[in-house]
Amino acid sequence: MKRRIVILLTCLLVILGTTSFAVTFTDLTNEHWAYEYISTLADSGVVNGYPDGSYLPEGTISRAEFLKLVIAASMPEGVDIKEAPMTLDHWAGQYLYVAETYGVVQRRSITLENIDEPITRIEMALMIAKADVMLKFNSLNTEKEITFNDYDEMTSEEVRWLTHAVNRGFIQGYPDNTFGTKLNMTRAEAATVIYRYTK
């Protein structure tokens, strides 16, 4: 009898030890449009919530936070970002160094004064598109032209890189066919872009 109990307890411990528990957030339900993207990335440790258990999907994400996600998702396996020099005296300084070195962002365009400010959708699009070409070595994809209603608000360089991001399926516009270049990126949108980028 004791032997059976020991065997059962051993089996239970093995099962519990190999079972993965999904990360849950207090303010995110499976009805949210980005639930799959956020929960998948959270389970793999790519994105994190706040100490109070929330994720704040509609909250903004800073340049530093998005930069970290992009560079971490772009580096080859086994490469330790902590070995890189720091461009700025900031927790994201090493990620910024890699981004500047490989042309993901322009040198000195991100400073101590703006690195913690919310990133805009067009900044995000350029960052993810350039990382895809410069760090993942994919060819620039501009075959299919973009036709957003706010196309005229963009520079020719922004159009070129946004076209790549759209053609690669990383991001899309809004139902009214605008892209919202100057709108801030939400944490839900950022998770969606990173999820698609890593697939």
Description of the structure:
Helices cover 42% and strands 0% of the residues. By secondary structure, the chain is an all-alpha fold. Helix 3 (63-74) crosses helix 4. The chain starts with a helix and ends with a helix. Mean pLDDT is 88; it is low at 5-20.
How are the SSEs ordered, and which strands pair?
Elements: H1 2-18, H2 35-43, H3 63-74, H4 93-101, H5 121-134, H6 156-167, H7 187-197
Helix pairs in contact: 2-7, 3-4, 3-5, 5-6
Structural class: mainly alpha
Percentage of residues in strands: under 5%
Q: Tell me about the biggest sheet? A: none
Number of strands: 0
Descriptive terms for the model:
mainly alpha; 199 residues; globular; 0% strand
Tell me briefly what this model is:
This protein is mainly α and 199 residues long.
